[in-house]
Amino acid sequence: MTAPTLPGLEPAPTPVAPRPGSRAVRMALPRSIDVLKDIAIEYGVCVRPLAMRRTDLDTGLTEVIDLPCGATREDKCPPCAKKNRRLRQAQIREGWHRDDEPLPGPEPATEAQKSLILFRAHLEFSRDEAVRAAQWDQVTDLDEAIREVEEAIAAEGLRGRVGPPHASDDEDQDDEPGQRRKRSTKRRQDAPELPRRKVERRTVGKTYTAPDGSTYQPSMWLTLTLDSYGPVRPDGTPVNPARYDYRRAAWDAVHFPRLLDRFWQNLRRCEGWNVQYAGCVEPQRRLAPHAHFAIRGTIPRDVLRTVAAATYHQVWWPSVDVQRYTLDRLPIWDEQAAAWVDPDTRESLTTWTEALDANDDDPDAEPVHVVRFGAQVDARGVMPGTEDAERTIRYVTKYITKHTGDCHKATTDRQRKHLDRLWQQLQMTPCTDRCANWLLYGVQPKKAHAKLKPGRCKGKVHQRDTLGIGGRRILISRDWSGKTLADHKHDARAWVRALLGVTTDGTQLVDYQGDTAERVRHAWELARPDDPDVGPMTHRLMRSISERARWRSELLAAKDRAAQGSSDLSATQHSAQHDGEETQ
After folding, report:
1. What are phi and psi of 163, to 5 degrees?
2. How far is CA 323 from CA 384, 430, 438, in A?
3. What are phi and psi of 171, to 5 degrees?
4. How many angstroms separate the CA atoms of 235 and 285, rounded?
5. Whole-angstrom distance, CA of residue 178 vs CA of residue 98
6. Host H or E run for residue 372
7. Angle between helix 32-42 and 78-96 (nearest 10)
8. What is the largest CA-CA distance in the chain?
């Protein structure tokens, strides 16, 4: 007699193969549309192109052309995001180890430009005399003449304005007239002093000479982090969530861009030359923002640490120590008073101007928040043309194709709760002087209106995906490579065309400044998805994949021909050198 098997210890049943043609077998087959998108991603084809209708202005021929969407996030379009990442890497690579200035100085002014400036000066003199004599009809005529001359100056090829425009009584003035609020520039007593040198007009670092006579010009890689808000575990979550300072973490994240700007300003004044940088802002595992930068030239590590310790940003806003209202009990909008009032007393809340005036009148007023860097400052030298330089560029651009909240996925309940607590604090933190969250603290924001919703501000810093990083994540100094992102795109296209031997023979015209420009012969407009000449998305993707596959084959063949040509040239030179040696 066989003993009965205890419950829960029955042997596992033998898996049975699904019936051919069953639903399980059909669901296991890959979907053709998914395979098409995977192939498009593999060949670098945009998976959500924009259908643009192009009309030839000469012949009237109209055709629909798919343009890339240009997304920078891989969750929207992986090919476009990858292309943008490669472009940023090329931009960092081109400007990092430069040994010359990227931007040349301005050209000398022509005689025609000088005469226009002189004529503008005469008009300014005549206007001043007319104002002194109260001849307002002449002032009006001179203002019109000044506008015409300034237009001619801009057409002549001069940058910027000669002088600010004259304000008139009929023009719109600022909503809040008065002088700009000024704060004391005296440094805080708890911040170390920094030396201040006159900044030279150079952007390249020092060149060093080795004992053997060779010269080299290294650069640097720098990481800046914020201060600690409490002990954290290896997964980034706080050891004691009740003692973790989420409020300070939220305020630091919102004002982190201002702190970075202050750091580069202090570093340039301390070093005495125009330090150039290129980097990215991303969250740490603890969800606090930090920044990686590639710096052209070398700076002593002690100087970097000293400048980071001495850098701070003070936020001179109204006090937020007491939250007077909650999401269940909010101020209400009074249509007659055109202001937000208390729901019980119907008294108007303090206006933004009144709150700032109270701070100005208080001699003991302190900033509502002070942002500082943490003690951790990582800096090391990087030599040009090494694998370390390429690896550092890849590290700097590691997360630029992801949302801030997707850089570190929350996989455990502890991490998800940590993210929720930080996000809840960010929802209550004011982001700007016009943020609706000021109503929670009894202050009407600047230019308040009835559509404000406290706790639901649409600013980027309040979103769950940004973690308080609402500004630009890619930070490139102005004189880094001397080119914009559009210039780098043009260089990439020119390299491909030169490799393939493709030339563009556009019709050249002469513009009003005497420069040559390509004549505009096409008109573009956005095509609607339901237009008759716009085909299905799958058909357009298949055509783009086929076209990109042919381009890739031609590009690889051109590279092989170029490599073969260089090898043949080197072999010919080696043979000629060998023949010369035999002749000697």
Report:
1. -160, 165
2. 53, 12, 9
3. -80, 155
4. 7
5. 46
6. strand 369-382
7. 10
8. 126
C-beta separation of 349 from 341 below 8 A: yes
Judge residue 20's burial from the number of C-beta atoms within 10 Å of its C-beta, 0-12 exposed, 13-18 middle, 19 or more buried: exposed
The H or E element that residue 510 is part of is strand 508-510
Report how far residue 89's alpha carbon sits from residue 311's, in angstroms, rounded to the nearest whole number.
Answer: 29
Q: Global pTM? A: 0.81
- For the CA atoms of 496, 499, 505, 510, what is the dihedral angle to 10 degrees? 70
Token pair in block for residue 65: 């052309």
579: its two tokens: 């023949």
pLDDT tens digits for 201-215?
889 988 888 888 888
Length of the chain: 584
**Are 140 and 96 a contacting pair, CB within 8 Å?**
no
Task: Tell me if 468 sits within 8 A of 426, measured CB to CB.
Answer: yes
d(CA 581, CA 584): 5
Tell me the Ramachandran region of residue 344: left when phi exceeds 0, alpha when psi lies from -120 to 50, beta otherwise: alpha
Q: Tokens 């051919």 — which residue?
A: 20
Please count the CA atoms within 13 angstroms of the CA of 369 that sit on its side-chain side: 22
Contact 320, 443 (CB under 8 A): no
Q: What is the DSSP string of 119-169?
A: HHHHHHHHHHHHHHTT-HHHHHHHHHHHHHHHHHHHHTT--S-SSPPPP-T
Structure tokens at 134: 């109260």
List CB contacts of 28: < 8 A, sequence separation 6 or more: none
Query: Do the beta carbons of residue 221 and residue 394 sit within 8 Å?
Result: no
Whether 306 and 192 have beta carbons less than 8 Å apart is answered as yes
For residue 160, the one-letter residue type is G
| Amino acid, res. 348 | S
Q: Which two tokens stand for residue 407?
A: 């850089």
Q: Please report, for residues 98, 99, 120, 162, 403, the alpha-carbon distance to residue 219 in angstroms, rounded to integers and kept in the order given.
A: 9, 11, 46, 38, 29
Structural contact between residues 381 and 298, judged by C-beta atoms closer than 8 angstroms? yes
Residues near 529 by beta carbon (within 8 Å), at least 6 away in sequence: 51
Q: Which two tokens stand for residue 220?
A: 């640097």
Mean pLDDT for each 10-residue chunk of the chain (584 residues)?
Answer: 58 73 84 91 91 88 89 91 93 91 84 91 92 90 91 88 73 51 73 84 87 88 95 94 94 95 94 94 94 94 94 93 90 92 92 91 89 94 92 93 88 94 93 93 93 90 88 90 86 80 50 47 86 89 91 86 72 50 42
The model's pLDDT over 525-557, given as tens digits with 9 standing for 90+, comes to 888 888 888 889 999 999 999 988 998 888 888
